[in-house]
Design goal:
2 domains; elongated; 7 helices; about 20% helix; alpha+beta
Length: about 350
């Protein structure tokens, strides 16, 4: 591609902050929960590049023709590929697209088409815009996408902190991940954490039903705890992992968990998985994101309760890795149910997407 900003380009990144920054130098946007994507067009050639510089074209064939039809002849844009389903973003549907069989990808694209939400412009024609202020890049982005139609969208943006706070509260039900804050005068800095993100965080008490060894230490350090919650039928469901430990704590956990390893499989609710059976919530199951990783796990008698911090749920599991808060020796495992979780009402994506998917 003969562009002033040519691939591969690593996207500009964000660092987490507990609240929206004050002042009038900021432009706020909803934070999308999808696949971060840089999209380059040079004539008839289109490249969808992942945040780690891998091509995504084959996984999203439904986007190629719309992008060729609606983007300028020569440009590079930053955005997020998302899939909306039943009024909310569906990250699991995105993961299903990463399939080796083209026929499977085609079927999924027809059944549940994807969209792309743009929020930055890196170059246009012969002009490199990386050094231009974000407010100028945003204005050009709005201009070139003024006539865009689904599946192409431009993210909402505001300078009003109250509006951004309202987005943070309301848009979560649609599956959005929080709010971004970008300096209006900021340049585009690839692979640098110069933006800010404010994400949702809640706490929850979970049963510790197993663990994985750390990849280093030859079974002298715990890598992660396997977390469970009881559903309405009384079954313990695997909901995610907690792995935010210091090296010292990883070593201490080996001794702390040792008593709970004794006879752990006798009445363990995940006994079938430990024996190599299949299951939807199999803690050691392989995925397209874990190719080559050792996901074997050690069962524990489900008697320990831990308080963790989490951002939000994707169906019945934590969307991201949970963070350790403290042990809850005062709480019985039976009290660790889905009922304790805060349920955020869904906001129809038409509030954000004016038209279409």
């Amino acid at each position: 591609m003969n562009l002033p900003v040519a691939p591969p380009v690593l996207p500009m990144l964000a660092k987490r902050t507990p609240e929206l920054p004050a002042g009038d130098e900021w432009i706020f946007e909803p934070k999308w929960d999808g696949f971060r994507t840089l999209i380059f067009r040079d004539g008839k050639e289109i490249l969808l590049q992942s945040r780690d510089s891998k091509p995504l074209n084959r996984y999203f064939p439904d986007l190629i023709d719309p992008l060729l039809a609606r983007l300028p002849e020569r440009c590079a844009l930053d955005g997020e590929i998302v899939i909306a389903h039943d009024g909310a973003l569906d990250f699991d549907a995105l993961q299903l697209r990463l399939h080796p069989a083209a026929s499977r990808v085609k079927m999924l694209a027809e059944k549940m088409p994807s969209s792309v939400v743009f929020f930055d412009l890196l170059c246009l024609g012969d002009h490199d815009l990386l050094g231009a202020p974000f407010e100028n890049r945003r204005a050009k982005l709005e201009s070139i996408l003024a006539a865009a139609a689904p599946p192409i969208h431009i993210t909402p943006a505001t300078r009003d902190r109250k509006v951004a706070s309202d987005w943070f509260r309301r848009f979560e039900g649609a599956g959005l991940d929080g709010v971004m804050a970008k300096r209006a005068a900021g340049i585009y800095e690839p692979d640098k954490r110069v933006m800010f993100k404010v994400k949702h965080e809640r706490d929850c008490d979970c049963v510790v039903a197993g663990f994985r060894w750390h990849k280093q230490g030859d079974q002298t350090m715990v890598g992660s705890l396997l977390l469970g919650l009881f559903d309405d039928a009384g079954a313990l469901q695997h909901v995610g992992v907690c792995a935010s430990f210091t090296t010292e704590m990883r070593k201490e956990l080996v001794e702390l968990l040792a008593p709970y390893r004794k006879n752990a499989l006798v009445n363990h609710p995940w006994k079938a998985w430990a024996a190599g059976g299949e299951g939807q919530r199999m803690p050691g199951g392989q995925s397209r994101w874990s190719q080559g990783k050792d996901l074997s796990w050690e069962p524990l008698r489900p008697e320990l309760v831990v308080e963790i911090a989490y951002e939000h749920m994707q169906d019945s599991r934590f969307r991201h890795m949970a963070q350790f808060r403290r042990w809850r020796t005062d709480k019985p495992p039976a009290a660790c149910t889905y009922a304790q979780l805060e349920v955020v009402p869904a906001l129809e994506l038409t509030e954000i997407f004016a038209t279409g998917r």
